[in-house]
Design brief:
Layout (H helix, E strand, L loop, with lengths): L15 H9 L5 H6 L2 H5 L6 H10 L5 H11 L4
């Protein structure tokens, strides 16, 4: 399923807990997630590796080199 940048986080398919954490960090839409750096996401209070994985699995970092880094560091195939 594809989501436009204007899609609210509530409609993004992310787990409710992750949505609550992201909203507390002033993320409101899928576009906010796509535009956010990994550092911005990980600095969000309560946002850990599992939440990071859920977000990047659905909304990958646009930098193709990051997919390789995720594989090497985390063992994730995103």
């Amino acid at each position: 399923m594809t989501f436009s940048d204007e899609t609210p986080l509530d409609d993004s398919g992310l787990p409710p807990r992750v949505v609550r954490i992201l909203k507390s960090g002033n993320f409101a839409t899928v576009g906010d997630l796509r535009a956010a750096s990994d550092g911005e996401l990980l600095r969000t209070r309560g946002f850990g590796n599992r939440a990071f994985y859920e977000v990047r699995k659905r909304f990958p970092n646009p930098d193709p080199e990051m997919a390789e880094i995720y594989r090497e560091i985390y063992g994730w195939d995103i």
